[in-house]
Design brief:
The chain has 478 residues and is mainly α. 79% of the residues lie in helices and 0% in strands. The radius of gyration is 22 Å and the shape is globular.
Length: 478
């Protein structure tokens, strides 16, 4: 079976994370959950922040396990931990028990998500890489949609099962991973790095040449991978990530992108949508969960279109257009909120807030969702991929941890004025992306790496993108 088909199993990892994010948003809108735990502003922040704490703790383990024992084992361990966390959350009797489950979910999400995205990038056919890597994180919204509509439906249950059922269903995707991961091939690049060249050849043949070991594409790819890994064999990835000018540029891009994934204003919508809606007079449980459900669907549809566009329009174009749409729409959200604050009965302003929230999330999902996991492996050499992917997720989790504490406090104290902070960050994003993010469209993973070693790599790749704007390199048969 082709690896590109088996990536569907790996994409479920992203759905697991999406379910968790939307579910916690949904159950915090439920009266039953609020009456059971009676959360204060600080305890709500604690519950949300501990997810990111678990993610931070997982950071050093991801690269160590993934490079030593393989990408698949990391994903498997993460899936098992997620199942354990599901049981704890569904059975939670108090806030501390709920918090422990959240820490475990955060730990498992980074452990599995980091390695799954790298495994997809390292395994798929060069022709399919743009779409399959970009669509990986788009599956976040499949989980988000399931969670949003589950909480909308269970909201009618009068008992604590209104939030325990969504919590219990959280483990379904992880359980699927546990069952089907044995059928997913290991990364051919990891196999070559461990001296298992014959196994790598079979994986490449199955994935890229319909099982034909004698196909010229298989031999060419294997030779390219072996040469690249041989050059990096004695390198220390922890030292190399900051030792050269080109790697420091990579590191800057990764850290900035990681913070942007949570500091673009989406953190307010993802974890505090109920508070954002309440601020404009939408306080009904049914209305809030309904909006959450519809928002998940529109976000997913945007991701699908964005993923299929990734191999045609280029990464820089997607990032820049995404940031500009977010900047414009979040500014409109801020202005509309200021009107509602002065005129609470102004329904037009309240509707405007909802409209621009939908537009903002569409802008975010045009680039920052599909490219969050596909872009980093493209600009990193083999020996830095797991560390680099861990770095971007570490920056993302630090930003998320900060957000979950600061957002509710900022909203409670200065209301709509707090949104101005995100407007400033979004403006910064546009400038940084324009001047530092290289284009990677049209290159194999091994071809990108040496180009980035040139101090003029951003200019070089930008010029190539202009010359070959619509050209995609296709190698061999599927």
């Amino acid at each position: 079976m082709r690896v590109s088909k088996l990536t569907a199993i790996l994409h479920i990892v992203s759905s697991t994370v999406g379910y968790e994010g939307s579910m916690i948003n949904g159950i915090q809108s439920l009266e039953q959950w609020n009456s059971y735990f009676q959360p204060t502003t600080s305890s709500t922040a604690l519950i949300n922040a501990t997810y990111w704490l678990g993610a931070i703790i997982s950071y050093p383990f991801t690269q160590f396990i993934g490079d030593r024992w393989g990408r698949k084992r990391v994903i498997y361990v993460g899936a098992v931990i997620s199942v354990i966390a599901t049981v704890l959350q569904a059975a939670a009797q108090n806030v501390p028990m709920f918090v422990v489950s959240r820490i475990l979910f955060g730990f498992s999400a980074i452990l599995s998500g980091n390695s799954a995205s790298v495994l997809v990038a390292e395994s798929v056919h060069p022709r399919d890489r743009n779409v399959l890597t970009a669509s990986y994180n788009s599956n976040y919204y499949i989980g988000a949609i399931l969670a949003a509509w589950t909480t909308f439906g269970t909201g009618a249950i009068a008992s604590s099962w209104s939030w325990r059922i969504p919590s219990l269903l959280q483990g379904v995707c992880a359980a699927i991973n546990v069952m089907f991961l044995p059928f997913v091939p290991e990364s051919p690049r990891w196999l070559v790095a461990k001296g298992r060249v014959d196994e790598a050849a079979h994986v490449l043949a199955d994935a890229h040449a319909n099982g034909d070991l004698d196909d010229p594409l298989v031999g060419a790819e294997l030779l390219e991978i072996k040469g690249n890994i041989r050059l990096l064999k004695n390198d220390n990835p922890w030292r190399d990530i900051y030792s050269s000018s080109s790697n420091r540029k990579r590191l800057f891009i990764l850290i900035f992108l990681g913070f942007s994934l949570n500091w673009s204003g989406n953190g307010l919508v993802s974890y505090y949508l109920s508070k954002v809606l309440a601020a404009v007079g939408i306080t009904s449980q049914d209305e809030q969960t309904l909006i959450n459900g519809i928002l998940s669907i529109t976000s997913w549809l945007t991701c699908i279109v964005a993923s299929w566009s990734a191999g045609r329009i280029g990464r820089r174009t997607q990032f820049l257009s995404s940031s500009l749409v977010m900047l414009a729409s979040f500014t409109a959200v801020t202005i509309s909120n200021s009107v509602v604050a002065r005129e609470p009965e102004n329904k037009h302003a309240a509707v405007s807030v909802i409209f621009f929230i939908f537009l903002f999330m569409s802008g975010y999902n045009w680039a920052f969702n599909p490219l969050a996991y596909s872009y980093p492996p493209e600009i990193l050499p083999y020996n830095l991929r797991l560390i680099g992917q861990s770095t971007i997720l570490f920056a993302c989790t630090i930003a998320g941890f900060f957000n979950t504490y600061v957002n509710p406090i900022g909203l409670a104290n200065i209301g709509w004025r707090y949104y101005i902070v995100y407007i400033a960050w979004l403006a910064t994003e546009v400038v940084v992306i324009y001047f530092t993010f290289p284009e990677t469209l049209g290159y194999s993973l091994e071809e990108i790496s040496p180009l980035l070693e040139d101090d003029g790599f951003i200019t070089k790749l930008r010029k190539k993108h202009i010359v070959e704007k619509n050209k995609v390199v296709v190698r061999g048969p599927a």
